[in-house]
User: Which sequence fits this backbone?
């Protein structure tokens, strides 16, 4: 069976009741949230203020606490300490079904014996909405995700991407104050992930629903978020716009986790670091001495003239369409990634010289 996963244009507001009813989102706050499982502390005093209608991603590796934070917000877990607010209301001890939250998880959890429109209407029926009204709202929600023409099908007749869009429609049909997305795209192939990621963002912007998105995929977070909270070992390292996190990481952890970085040795002297015969400004304050310097691939250049720089040999070079990304081993044995023109074709063991763009860099003191 061939299925169509191409996103369809969103309906006009006048054609869709969900769009017609769209309004301003709800403010969400974490205030000193701590979560313990026995003697293990998973969240260490998380503070986060999410504005009405904002799309915020919790980004971090497995085990960093991002899903636990989402579950505390959803009411699926109780905070050990601290509080969670929706609007002006403390909901820390309010049951999940009283929080007016929509949730989409990695597992679609659709009922195989129900038609698609019946799956989407299920939550409304549980709330006492009459069948005819519930299924009309369900069709509005399916129209919103581009699946109104498939309302009579069963789940086994849909692709994985279509099933996840049904799960999104089911979460939106109740017009929740807050939408929670827990790695909803991780089971999909790359092309469908990008399509659905962009569609979720378009719908969120149209509805204005406050949305919290959990992911370990930095590209997803950078592409769709108004702001991102980078988590590490149960703490938030930095909260900022995608541009802030990439261009102005506040900590070495953020610099290493968000985007690609190479780590090379340098020496801090005052507000600058000496590297490869160059002096570069340092972000933040660091004690003088040996440091690791984080370099973005696009800030490393293939030198064409001048005396500064470091020599190395090409280890691999990958064609990525509009540019190439080349891995170079320097004379000091450090591995450095360079992003450069696709026209500069390099082969294994070619000798090159590297320099760095005069941009501020993030550094980390070398451990004794």
Assistant:
């Amino acid at each position: 069976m061939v299925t169509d996963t191409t996103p369809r244009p969103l309906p006009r507001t006048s054609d869709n009741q969900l769009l017609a009813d769209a309004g301003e989102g709800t403010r969400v706050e974490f205030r000193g949230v701590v979560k313990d499982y026995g003697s293990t502390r998973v969240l260490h005093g998380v503070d986060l203020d999410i504005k009405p209608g904002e799309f915020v991603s919790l980004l971090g590796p497995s085990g960093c606490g991002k899903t636990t934070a989402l579950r505390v917000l959803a009411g699926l877990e109780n905070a050990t300490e601290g509080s969670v607010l929706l609007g002006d209301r403390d909901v820390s001890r309010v049951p999940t079904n009283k929080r007016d939250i929509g949730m989409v998880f990695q597992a679609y959890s659709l009922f195989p014996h129900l038609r698609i429109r019946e799956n989407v209407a299920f939550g409304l029926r549980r709330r006492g909405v009459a069948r005819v009204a519930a299924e009309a709202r369900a069709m509005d929600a399916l129209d919103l995700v581009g699946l109104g023409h498939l309302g009579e099908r069963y789940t086994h007749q849909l692709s994985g991407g279509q099933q996840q869009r049904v799960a999104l429609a089911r979460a939106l049909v109740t017009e929740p104050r807050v939408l929670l997305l827990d790695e909803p795209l991780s089971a999909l192939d790359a092309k469908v992930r990008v399509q659905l990621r962009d569609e979720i963002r378009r719908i969120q912007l149209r509805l204005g629903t406050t949305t919290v998105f959990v992911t370990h995929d930095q590209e997803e977070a950078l592409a769709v978020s108004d702001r991102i909270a980078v988590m590490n070992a149960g703490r938030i390292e930095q909260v900022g716009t995608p541009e802030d996190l990439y261009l102005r990481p506040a900590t070495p952890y953020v610099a290493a986790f968000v985007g690609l970085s190479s780590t090379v040795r340098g020496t801090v002297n005052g507000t600058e670091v000496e590297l490869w015969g160059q002096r570069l400004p340092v972000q933040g304050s660091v004690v003088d001495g040996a440091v690791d310097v984080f370099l973005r691939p696009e800030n490393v250049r293939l030198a064409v003239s001048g005396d500064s720089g470091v020599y190395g040999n090409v280890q691999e070079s990958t064609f990525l369409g509009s540019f190439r990304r080349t891995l170079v081993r320097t004379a000091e044995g450090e591995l450095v990634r360079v992003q450069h023109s696709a026209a500069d074709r390099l082969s294994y063991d070619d000798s090159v010289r590297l320099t760095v763009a005069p941009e501020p860099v993030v550094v980390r003191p070398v451990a004794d």
Observations:
- Confidence is low (pLDDT under 50) at residues 1-14.
- The first helix runs from residue 17 to 20.
- DSSP finds nine helices and 20 strands in the chain.
